[in-house]
Design a protein that fits this description.
By secondary structure, this protein is an all-alpha fold. The protein has helices spanning 3-10, 14-39, 43-63, 67-87, 93-114, 120-127, 135-154, 156-164, 166-171, 176-215, 221-246, 250-271.
Amino acid sequence: MSDFSVLASLFSYQFFQFAVLGGILAGSACAMVGVFIVLKKQSMLGDGLAHASFGGIAIGLFLGLLPLLTALLVSILTVLAISYMRRHGIAPSDASIAVFLALGFATGLVLISLSGGFSVDLFSYLFGSILTINAMDLMVIGLLGLTIIIFMLVFYKEIVALCFDENFAKLSGIPVTTFNLVFDVLVAITIVISIKIVGVILVSALVVIPALSALQLNLSFRRTMVASVAIAIVSVITGIITSALVGVATSGMIVFIAGAIFVICAIYKKLG
């Protein structure tokens, strides 16, 4: 059977269709949020929230609850705590992220010890398991992903103003504190819905790399957003297909392809 026939047969399976659809939704949300995160120089926020979410996932598995929902709750509380510490001068942004990154991972390790060790479910959240997305996962990812995309499109101008000059945004009448909090919560949601795609360890790559690649192209801001989304979708779909054809880890292949696109974009910028 040729590779094309194998590929055509894969798309006939429901689990593969769920994987592609979930990957496109989560990848698009990551790419849109990622542009703003990179411009605000908060790239490590995604990594910190991902590790904090690991604690939330462990809590969910330990208590028999839906892990994505407990991870979402922990992630939102974490980003609000980081924002509070930053705004009140308790700790700078990077130090706050480091604290909650460590606490989240430590919580996960303690609960793993109490439950007798790593389980298959926990491994799937650590390293991603896009091919095991079920109807419930897809519904959660779809609702949250569409919420993020719609918010970013509706409040595009306000968020752009926040990224480049918060003082100007304040003078323009934009409620900066409220928008910053809402944006931080959206980042938390984005991280959680992407964990199923590439896992806790690699999720920040799906947020940062497509955005960073698009920024190499020196496009207008709106076109940079479009390019970032396109790069994320290409990375996810190509990663899923390649991993299925050659039998390697899907999450790793998605990030590897995104990294390869970044290298190409960086070379293009250098030569241009």
